Amino acid sequence: MAALGTCEQPSLSNKKMRSDITQGTMNDDDEFDCSQRAQLLRAVVLGANDGLVSIASLMMGVGAVKDGTKSMVLTGIAGLVAGACSIAIGEFVSVYTQKDVELAQRARRVRKNAGHEEETTNQRLKLPNPVQAAIASAFAFTIGGVVPLLAAAFIRRQHTLRLAVVAAAASLALSSVRVLIGGWMAMAITFGLTKLIGTTGL
Length: 202
Fold this sequence. Notes:
The chain has helices at about 1-10, 10-25, 25-65, 70-115, 115-125, 130-155, 160-175, 175-200. It starts with a helix and ends with a helix. It is elongated, with a radius of gyration of 26 Å. It is mostly helical and about 200 residues long. α3 runs antiparallel to α7 and α7 runs antiparallel to α8 (about 175-200). InterPro entries: Ccc1_fam.
């Protein structure tokens, strides 16, 4: 009987967990934190990888037809500014669209349930921030693009070595093997096509 009585009495921790689940605070907050962090992390990783591959490929393309350090560095700087602005605008539009979709979904849920509790829960959750995502992407793109720029800037005369260092610096900084293979392909294709066009005189 004592054992039976013990099983019938829930512990304080179980009561608190049930209360949290019923009120929607524990699961909602955990889901919100993870989704917000994942979104920001995605913007940073994509921005950094894009900066590395884009700027390194541009510099490799120019280096295929010009030996001077100045040409490569100026091309890298121009690509850095243009790329950072482009990825910031793209991320802003993307996240802003996601925000509009979430607002529409929540409005439909409130109208469908017509419940005060559902409306209160929706108001407690924050929406994605397009400005924050745009700034994070542009900053990460700039940091990624600076890597091949610095690698080329310190090698003045040895052209072949400069190209190899740019490719090696970008490869070492890429985040994963899959991205590394894609980065190598992008640099190789850009280098090859530019060399071909420069050779044929088109």
